[in-house]
Design brief:
By secondary structure, the protein is α/β, with parallel strands linked by helices. It has helices at about 10, 35-45, 70-80, 90-100, 115-125, 140-145, 175-185, 210-220, 230-240, 250-260, 285-300, 310-325, 325-345, 365, 375-390, 395-400, 430-445; strands spanning about 60, 105-110, 130-135, 150-155, 190-195, 225-230, 265-270, 280-285, 360, 390, 395, 415-420, 450-455, 465-470. It folds into two domains: about 15-65 and about 325-470, Alpha-Beta Complex (Aspartate Aminotransferase, domain 1), CATH 3.90.1150.10; about 70-325, 3-Layer(aba) Sandwich (Aspartate Aminotransferase, domain 2). A five-stranded mixed β-sheet has the order 2-8-7-6-5, with helices on both faces. The chain has a three-stranded antiparallel β-sheet with strand order 9-12-11. Strand 3 (about 130-135), helix 6 and strand 4 form a beta-alpha-beta unit. It binds ligand F0G. Ligand F0G binds near residues 63, 139, 140 and 228. Ligand F0G binds next to helix 5 and helix 6.
């Protein structure tokens, strides 16, 4: 424990310290290039951290997607790949793992989360229908729009307030949903798009109570609920910690109960499920399964591999089992909160409470002198990289994109820079280095001059847009 940490993890959360339930067996060297080289690299990347080469990055907090370290068991599983084109035994292991831990009936494998989003959107949404959900996610909403749907945000208001300390800021506001059903009619609602945790709100959780009440409301109107289960295991940790009656219930049991209130789920297995590539769609309805399983052969691959190699499916099946281990989830979320705790103690504005997968810096409060058109969160990500080689990403105006009907910018309430922590990859010392760099950038905040966008791609512009300094 270094001297500069204000409190150890144990002190911070009222118990003796504990550590990750693993030790490191293999390491990958990283290094920091010079400040001059980082300046140059940022200009060449058009001030977009997605356009940096990873060799030029020191600590990579761009995303927790596909960046986890696999266990020795998962690597052993990679050697057991059955690479048959059809009916690979690894597929059946995967199906069994999903049915055991998530509890859905029918499984369609996909290459990653957006492959599953594509299938469910095309299979269920009819042109002109609405898709209410607890805040948008970039790829999810785009697939819903491409299928002819209109996403409607029905998350609780607190989700849009980075200072609100509510325990379950990912909850659906059932009054907002009820009003939408009344206004457009239940027939015009394709399904409720429920995500746990809510990425764009800062990794905020949904309560079990909210899921239960949502089920009741939807049953009354015959509306389906599909879950974005990408970070649902982390959501279950917050239920265990914060919701009455769950303190002694294992994560695995909480997960099974929560999924039981929904009709199916899509999954980016690159997050919770601890693999570098993979995804799945799971549904209980035969007709939706039939449609998705037929479509997967057009876009992903045969319905028993969906774009994954046999070995990938084996590593994923094992990853699912490891992902619901209580000690694993607790150390994962608490590492994120350790970083958040340091920044909070230094008065750096971040989204509170700290969520499951990332610390979100509040660029609006950090750079009050910049307008949203000067891209404060994009600016902050660039400044942080230049300071220390730490790579983060923008989750604000650039990510929100344009309204497809009007072509206007969407200007979200939240203008955030995300420090996303890969699972089982970095140590507490890495978190200290990151926190100290954020503090330096925060201390120099008055000097930040903002950016202008000089190249804007049509879809998901945050991945490929280019900027210049103002
Ligand atoms: N849903 C959520 C909540 C996600 O965070 C992501 C991806 C997806 C769906 C799409 O899955 O990437 O496997 O196709 N999020 C990554 C991130 C990219 O950095 O947050 P995918």
């Amino acid at each position: 424990m270094s001297e500069k940490t204000p409190k150890t993890m144990g002190q911070q959360f009222g118990r003796r310290s504990w550590a990750e339930p693993w030790k490191i067996k293999m390491v990958e060297p990283i290094h920091m290039i010079s400040r001059e080289q980082r300046e140059q690299a940022m200009v060449e990347a058009g001030f977009n951290t997605f356009l940096l080469r990873s060799d030029d990055v020191y600590i990579d907090l761009l995303t927790d997607s596909g960046t986890s370290a696999m266990s020795d068991r998962q690597w052993a599983g990679m050697m057991l790949g059955d690479e048959a084109y059809a009916g690979s035994r690894n597929f059946y292991h995967l199906v069994e793992a999903i049915q055991t831990y998530y509890g859905y009936k029918h499984i369609v494998p996909t290459h990653q989360g957006r492959g599953a989003e594509h299938l469910i959107s095309q299979a269920v949404i009819k042109k002109g229908q609405y898709v209410p959900g607890n805040m948008y996610f970039t790829t999810t909403r785009l697939h819903q729009e491409l299928a002819g749907g209109t996403f409607v945000d029905v998350i609780v208001d607190a989700a849009h307030d980075p200072t609100s300390l509510r325990k379950f800021k990912g909850n659906i506001d059932l009054d907002k949903l009820g009003a939408l059903i009344e206004r457009v009619g239940a027939d015009q609602i394709a399904y409720v798009s429920l995500a746990g945790t809510v990425n764009m709100a800062g990794g905020q959780p949904v309560s079990m109570e909210n899921a239960r009440q949502l089920r009741e409301l939807c049953d009354k109107h015959g509306i389906l609920i599909y879950l974005d289960a990408t970070r649902m295991v982390e959501n279950c940790f917050f239920i265990q910690e914060r919701e009455e009656g769950y303190a002694h219930v294992p994560i695995a049991a909480i997960l099974k109960e929560f999924c039981g209130y929904t009709d199916g789920a899509w999954m980016s297995a690159k997050k919770d499920n601890l693999v570098n590539i993979g995804g799945w769609l799971a549904v209980n309805q035969e007709e939706v399964f039939d449609a998705a399983r037929n479509m997967v052969v057009i876009y992903e691959g045969l319905h028993t591999y969906g774009g994954m190699a046999g070995r990938d499916m084996e590593a994923l099946a094992i990853g699912i089992t490891e992902s619901v281990d209580d000690d694993h989830v607790r150390t994962r979320v608490n590492q994120v909160r350790y970083l958040g705790g340091l920044l909070t103690s230094w008065n750096v504005p971040i989204v509170q409470p700290v969520g499951g997968h990332a610390v979100f810096l509040d660029a609006k409060r950090m750079y009050p002198h910049l307008t949203q058109d000067q891209f404060p969160a994009q600016t902050l990500a660039a400044e942080l990289y230049i300071d220390s080689g730490v790579r983060s990403m923008e989750r604000g105006n650039v990510s929100a994109g344009r309204d497809p009907n009007t072509g206007n910018n969407r200007y979200p309430a939240l203008e955030l820079t995300r420090l996303t922590i890969p699972r089982r990859v970095y140590t507490q010392a890495h978190m200290d280095v990151v926190a100290e760099s954020v503090k330096t950038v925060y201390d120099n905040r008055a000097n930040a001059s903002g950016l202008k966008m000089v190249y804007e791609p049509k879809y998901l512009r945050f991945f490929q847009a280019r900027f210049e300094r103002l």
